[in-house]
Design brief:
Blueprint (H helix, E strand, L loop, with lengths): L2 H9 L3 E2 L20 H11 L5 H4 L2 H27 L9 H17 L20 H4 L9 H11 L2 H9 L4 H23 L19 H7 L11 H16 L1 H14 L2 H14 L9 H5 L2 H13 L9 E2 L5 E3 L2 E3 L4 E2 L1
Antiparallel strand pairs: 1-2, 2-5, 3-4
Helix pairs in contact: 4-5, 5-11, 5-12, 9-11, 12-15
């Protein structure tokens, strides 16, 4: 399909199909699962600024990222030291799990607060393989690519759902367990707000959200109706955010690390750029400085280009009255893959 066709389908009023219902959580729609483009836009506006470059570069967000990366690098150093003492026969490293732990700890602190986020990195142990079960991350394995593909197959069409439930498939149980985990995170965050000083709005109090993603949803009101989001709606939304980053980010980072390890010349260029461009003192290093490094940026962009982290189609439905795309007429209601 040409660029013109793509613009027509994804920017010209083609609504999402019922397939997106598999992304509902807690029985509620979220930004990604809304069929209506307008509903999608309205929900996105609540927290869009939190994901902007200017917001990510704020000191408290950078501190979240730096402290967790430091935790991971300390563990890797310990693992290397342990392997040296064992004549190169240390326990295997499951790189994807290390990066999943990093992603979960960074995102939950970012989405809620420093005091409520997960602490999977603290559970890393050089004496074991650090599987999802050992780290306590198996409850969110639902979001990983291998589990997600099976989930999509059985839940994408109504006939498949009924067959799956007759066979006793445990996909819905895994989904429910993930919902319980997210609900517990929310309860911890909302409980922490109860101890905030009376004269300061809890969502913007330092250390308890800093206008966090969930904090924005907690106080948001519809500008037309004044209605706030229910707890289930907020939970569905934040669970979608958790799932969106749980495998794509680690997958890209794992690929980049792997490729760099196979190319000493790339390593040398990166080291040269980092050592000559970054301040010696870590506290003086700013996001803007790192973001402006051309070779590092090229490496990251190349990794994103080569790794297909989201391999599902973006289904759309032909609107009322039908539509002609590149010379072919499609009647209303036809699902577009």
């Amino acid at each position: 399909m040409t660029n013109e066709g793509i613009r027509l389908v994804y920017g010209g009023g083609f609504e999402r199909s019922a397939w997106y219902e598999i992304f509902h959580n807690f029985g509620k729609q979220n930004m990604f699962s809304f069929k209506s483009s307008q509903a999608h836009i309205t929900r996105r506006r609540i927290y869009a600024m939190n994901y902007s470059k200017s917001a990510i570069s704020q000191p408290h967000v950078q501190n979240i990222i730096k402290t967790r990366i430091s935790q991971l690098t300390r563990y890797i150093a310990q693992q290397a030291s342990s392997t040296d003492r064992m004549d190169g026969k240390g326990s295997p490293l499951v790189v994807r799990n290390l990066l999943r732990a990093l992603q979960a700890d960074v995102f939950t602190a970012f989405a809620f607060s420093e005091t409520v986020g997960t602490n999977f990195l603290n559970k890393l142990d050089v004496s074991r393989a650090n599987t999802s079960e050992e780290l306590g991350m198996d409850v969110i394995d639902l979001f990983h690519e291998d589990k997600r593909d099976a989930f999509f197959f059985w839940e994408s069409e109504s006939p498949f759902k009924y067959v799956a439930r007759l066979l006793g498939w445990d996909g819905p149980i895994a989904h429910k367990n993930a919902e319980t985990w997210v609900s517990n995170l929310i309860s911890g965050y909302e409980a922490s707000l109860q101890v905030a000083p009376k004269d300061m709005h809890p969502v913007v109090q330092k250390g308890l959200g800093d206008n966090s993603v969930y904090g924005k949803m907690l106080v948001w009101k519809n500008p037309q109706t004044g209605r706030q989001l229910s707890r289930e709606e907020r939970a569905s939304e934040i669970m979608d955010h958790v799932g969106a980053g749980q495998d794509p980010v680690p997958a890209v980072l794992e690929y980049i690390i792997r490729r760099i390890s196979l190319h000493p010349d790339v390593q040398a260029c990166l080291c040269q750029e980092l050592t000559t461009s970054l301040p010696c003192q870590s506290e003086e290093r700013r996001y803007a400085i790192v973001d402006a490094l051309p070779y590092l940026n090229a490496v990251v962009l190349e990794g994103l280009r080569l790794v297909d982290t989201i391999d599902s189609y973006q289904r759309r439905v032909v609107p009322k009255g039908g539509s002609t795309i590149e010379g072919y007429y499609l009647p209303a209601g036809v699902r577009f893959f």
